Amino acid sequence: MDYYSLLGVKKGASADEIKKAYRVAAKKYHPDLVRDESKKEEAKKKFQEIQAAYDVLGDEKKRQAYDSMGHESFTRTGGGGNYGFESQGGFEDIFNDLFGRGFSSRGFSSAFGGFNSDSGEYSNAARGEDLRYSLELALEESFAGKELKIQLPRMVVCKGCSGNGKDPESKAIKCTTCNGTGRIVMQQMFLTLQQTCHDCHGRGNRQADCKQCRGKCRVSEKSTIDVVIPKGVTDGISLRMQRQGNAGIEGGPAGDLFIAVKVKKHDLFVVENANLICSFPVSLAIAVLGGVIEVPTIDGSLIEVKIPAGSENGDRIRVAGKGMPILSSLKRDVGRGDMFVQIELDVPTSLSSKEKEAWRILLEEENSPKYKKFKAKLKNYKK
Fold this sequence. Notes:
By secondary structure, the protein is of the alpha+beta class. Helix content is 26%, strand content 27%.
């Protein structure tokens, strides 16, 4: 079988087609990816053949020589001799495809620690998890801001071992699994893999676990945290408190705490961004003739608001600067929104005989501009 057949491509295949075919075949036959132990030896042999084929066909000069001399002549000359990572530009990428991005030709690393090729050291430091806390506020508290203490369970650094997970009274001994190196080296044919030792976690020595945290480096504790709620927080906002989440592992940074704010509905006000809407019942007399009403504000005071004559249901009257504080990331006062008094016409449903008579007189003299226009349209509509 020639090299093209081994990779499953035609003789005129492009370089990209050959590389793609090699990736597929290498993942299929790599011994470390074959779970059936009885088939590992066969897969190993097949993988070597595939590797030799790609080493030749993946190199333009070797491929030209192979096409000219033929398969038998070429293999007798030892054309596919070098399987190192330097021989083909795509080997490192293919290696990562086979083993995942946690591995590399130089060692093992991950988000949870491992070998640092820059420093040459092993680390098991990991960032702590973020936490979420739900907090319900009254609108008045949202307006004024609030300082409070909250209690929540979170992981903190174990005091018994200072966060390293080991019993300080026990003695460290050299790890026999990695012989004190902190890493395990595995030779897979032409590949050399380095991985953090799973027994000593890269330390090179083993020690009895801490009795308090049982080697976890952290313990659960009910913590009290001071929280400052800024003025003007709105429903649904999430406040981030850096480094107030779970403690990190072995020197890793702590996670963050997110305060999810829920603002309760108010009896008088509705929030629209930084503005407040106050629906106020206005009598028909005031709506027609105009007048002054007293309206409550979010800070607890009462203010006078003038209702213009001829106001209609749903009209809004703006009161500047009487809304919610404008929340700013600049941590300074940037002013307040506005309050809008929304007119709700208060139509009387229970009248005395004297009041009914007064409304009958008004009804007989009904002659508003809108009514006149409607009557004109109605007249034109009739046939």
